[in-house]
Amino acid sequence: MSDRAAIERAVTELAAGRLVAVPTETVYGLAADATNGEAVAGIFEAKGRPRFNPLIVHVADRAMAERIARFDPLSAALADRFWPGPLTLVLPLQQASNIHPLVTVGLDTVALRMPQGLARDVIAALGKPIAAPSANTSGRISPTSAQAVQDDLGSKLAYILDGGSADVGVESTILKVEGDIVRLLRPGGLTVEEIEDAIGQDVVVGSAGPAIEAPGMLASHYAPDASVRLHAEHIEAGEALLAFGPDRASGFESAAAVRNLSEKGDLREAAANLYAHLQALDCYGARMIAVEPVPQHGLGAAINDRLSRAAAPRGQ
Q: Which residues make beta-bridge pairs with 87?
């Protein structure tokens, strides 16, 4: 099927209030018309997602975004610099916004992103914003391919738009501007270093309070069936190994399976491989996936964030 025909099919299904998986540069999204309450409710049902966890709204252009949210000068500058791309901004809702309240879970803010590629083409053709969390069962590994979506949620979707493997491989970075402070709510495919270089000031890491302000803030998230053990320097017999770089942890020869995020230690390559490698290792049935240390700088911050949530006690 051509891209044009695939986009038309996706638009037809979304306009009818059905769920469609769409490819973005970060991960595949589970999309529904963000103005249709029944369609949005279908996202929560299909994912088994907690109703207190807000959804990201994806837009095709700034005009669509500004009908939904109010932009302060710093947020506008960030959008000008990094959209379309792996950046989500948490912004005050416009009073006249037609985003369904289920999307924002009653908050007076909305998380907005302008994706790259086919997803943006679908939104433009639909003429409406879409709500689109990752296209996976809630708390599980995010999908970076159409096949991964099919294996998890295929029976619950009207259509899966296949755009190949996701280029970035981890979800978007989420920022919230509070006065003259830029706050990082979730690390992602846009690094803190890139943001600070663009705005000429430091980014403050973490939410100002305990409330969930954006997606991806649950303690346990992105988890395989196997338990996850971080910063592994020795591998026990029967463990699966998620490796990084050219040097191996001791005992790696006894691992049930090995996948290397990047043989050369490239963090961009590692981010792109993260979810697919976790899924592959999970298929071996090992009780534990041991993870070698990953540097914290650059995209390593997003990789380590996802790994720490995958390793957290389940149900948090």
A: 173
| Cβ neighbours, 10 Å, residue 296 | 11
What's the number of CA atoms in the CB half-sphere (13 Å) around residue 14? 30
What letter does residue 94 receive in the DSSP assignment?
P
pLDDT (tens digit, 9 = 90+) per residue, 197-218?
A: 999 999 998 776 656 666 665 6
**Domains observed in the chain:** 3-205 (3.90.870.10), 227-311 (no CATH)
SS3 state at 109: strand
Is residue 30 within 8 A of residue 133, CB to CB? The reply is yes
Query: Which candidate, 175, 62, 173, 77, places its Cα nearest to that of 120?
Result: 62
Please calculate the CA angle 303-308-309 and round it to the nearest 5 degrees.
Answer: 100
pLDDT along the chain (316 residues), means of 10: 92 98 97 97 91 90 98 97 98 94 91 97 98 93 96 96 96 95 95 96 80 62 87 96 97 96 97 96 94 96 93 72
Return d(Cα 139, Cα 314) in angstroms, integer: 9
CA 107, CA 214: separation in Å to the nearest integer? 10
Handedness of CA 30, 36, 42, 45 (dihedral sign): positive
